[in-house]
Structures are given as C-alpha cells and as structure tokens.
Specification:
mainly alpha, two-stranded antiparallel sheet, 2 strands
Length: 156
C-alpha cells in the first residue's frame, strides 16, 4: 500500500520543480491508486489527466476498469464505456474483450438497467461476445420485476 503515497509525493516534487506531468505520469498515478484500493483517487487523476489534455489510452482504460469492482458506480461505468469506445481500434481482440467483460460484470453487479444495456450494446457494436454467465445473469434480470421509477432491476 506504500506505492500510492509515494507516487503522489513524486508528483508534488515534480510540480515544485516546474516539471509537467504527462500521460505516463498520470497512468502511473492512476495505477498506484487502483492497486491500493483508492478508486476515487484513480478517477480524480484520470479527470485531471483529461483536463490537462492527455486523452486516456488502452493502458488508462485497462487500469480504470479494474477499479469498477467491488463498488461500481453508474458514472464510472459510463466513463469506462466512453473510453473503451474511443480506444477500441487501438486494442487487440483479447484486450477489447477483457475491457468490455469488465464493464458488463460491473453493470451486472450494480444492477442498473441503463448502463447494463449500454454495456451489452456497445460490446456487441465492437464485436465482443459477453460471457455465457453474463448472458444468463442478464436473462435472469430481464425476467425479474423491474422498478420503473428508479430504473434499477429489483432483486427477487
């Protein structure tokens, strides 16, 4: 767990010396935060990265999808889906599949119908087949009662 505070300290020292962070710096910070369970910090660094003019890449996306579990949020899943869509052409089939499977699993875990449908739809658009387990889970959710007010699937 010591890597994340060290990474933040390095960034502080860089800035104190007038050095600018680049995409590699931000990916390193995002990774350090993700590895220590600091998902919120990872996402803050990602937002700062984008604000500084560095679009996320396949490395950024791979790191961020790992932060979706165990506590996914709609916003984070949507941001991952946006990023996966943007970088899909730069990914090989195996990586693209892993990224979409991660977003689908997070959406299933969250149970939000909107991000779930978007995850499946976007994966299909990029020719990624969901796992058999994800399809079974989606089928179970589709046959259960739905809460039209909250837009979430009701647990049985």
């Amino acid at each position: 767990h010591g890597h994340f505070p060290n990474a933040v300290e390095v960034l502080s020292r860089m800035r104190a010396r007038g050095l600018e962070a680049n995409a590699i710096t931000y990916n390193s910070l995002i990774d350090a935060a993700a590895r220590t369970g600091e998902a919120a910090a990872a996402w803050e660094f990602y937002q700062e990265m984008v604000k500084q003019g560095f679009p996320g890449d396949k490395y950024t996306c791979s790191i961020l999808t790992k932060t979706l579990s165990p506590n996914p949020t709609c916003d984070r899943i949507r941001m991952c889906l946006d990023l996966v869509h943007e970088i899909a052409a730069a990914c090989d089939v195996k990586l693209r599949t892993r990224l979409y499977h991660s977003t689908i699993e997070a959406a299933l875990q969250l149970g939000d119908s909107t991000v779930l449908i978007r995850s499946f739809s976007q994966a299909r658009q990029h020719r990624v087949r969901p796992t058999a387990a994800a399809c079974r889970q989606l089928k179970e959710l589709a046959t259960s009662a739905r809460d039209p007010v909250a837009g979430h699937w009701k647990p049985q």
